[in-house]
Amino acid sequence: MRVHTGERPYECHVCDKAFSSTGDLNKHTTVVHMGDKRYKCHVCDKTCSTSANLRCHMKVHSEFKPYRPRVCDKVLSLSAHLKLQMRAHPGEKPFECAVCSKRFARGDHLMRHSMIHSGEKPHKCHVCEKAFSESGHLKKHMRIHTGERPYKCAVCSKAFSESGHIKVHMRVHTGEKPFECTVCGKRFASSGNLWTHRRIHSGEKPYICHFCHKRFAGPGNLSTHVGIHFGQKLYRCCVCDKAFGRFGNLTSHMRVHTGEKPYSCSLCDRSFSLSGGLQRHISSVHSTRKPYRCPYCGFQCKVSGNLKCHIYTHTGATPYSCAKCSSNFTWYSQLKVHMLKSHGEGTWLTCDICQKKFSDSGSLKDHLLRHKGIKPYVCGDCPKRFCTVSELKAHQTVHSDIKRFCCSLCDKSFKRKLNVKQHFKKCFNELGLNDVLYML
Asked: What pTM value is reported for the model?
């Protein structure tokens, strides 16, 4: 009679849900609150709380799918799935939230949503007491304590605790980056990385260090920074003993020893050890977009770092100071050379072929390309090739009519910076400014 009267005298003491029979209450307590799933699938090891649920699940592995919606070609193994599928086509959502009026196609989706308003979290971790609104969330959380990582990459065997994580990881191998920044065109493999990147353009830095109050755009950057205060460098290189605060930095560093360069440019034959290096290469060499504009003169560039350096020419800023003397420098590379020449601090990098010395590895690499005859930078307008990006950029002015460099004495314009420098000296002498300078 309770079917007709709707009477539910048996109430769960944990979540206050009511049932018409003791059997239903016992089943609810065992399945929902105790997490008892004793019935295991022999195909995929999934566990179910009841034998009936296991029988329904086994149909997923069966080839027999008798249920076909009239509106699409999809075939389904369960009649319940057919009902849900039919609701997807007309957009039917018969279950409405009494608090916010949001609608759902399934009753269990509404129940999960309702916990947002009630704050109910009936599923508690027995290790750390953290509570969750859904048993599935608790199951994922438990993998933190157990170390279980059931999802393994078929390419590199890296394992993950969640299926969503392996989907994002697979983009490392496929190169897929579906999330694009609308400001600068940079692409990302995950939406989270895109949201963090957008803060570069907005200037938003919501993550604050409690020790020095420095602000950061992303939680990962803050976490790395906090390690500086504690001196934490837990990850050590087994080859050169160099230590790092993050495992990812150690992985990237190991490529220095192995020479591995897994990130290849699809437009030329250059490869890189870091994905960031490939992104910078594409932006600076192959892309024509210049989203960064100088507020003083309107100069545009492809990389934010280049704009920062350019602005120094207007402000006259010399942010790099020598700790040994009173010298200040506009560029870090100038400070590095100064420390080597004047104070003997640091290490010169020597070419094994001609013994020429360099202050940084990038200059040495470019120099070695000349010995090997390698010219990886190709002009897009002609077949000419170059050893460095700066040489390619200087050459590309041949194909352009733009004259970016202007003489401040006579307003004559030039395509190349070297030409305006040479002209400026000549113009300086012709106007007799040398004599004025001498008199002063």
From this structure: 0.35
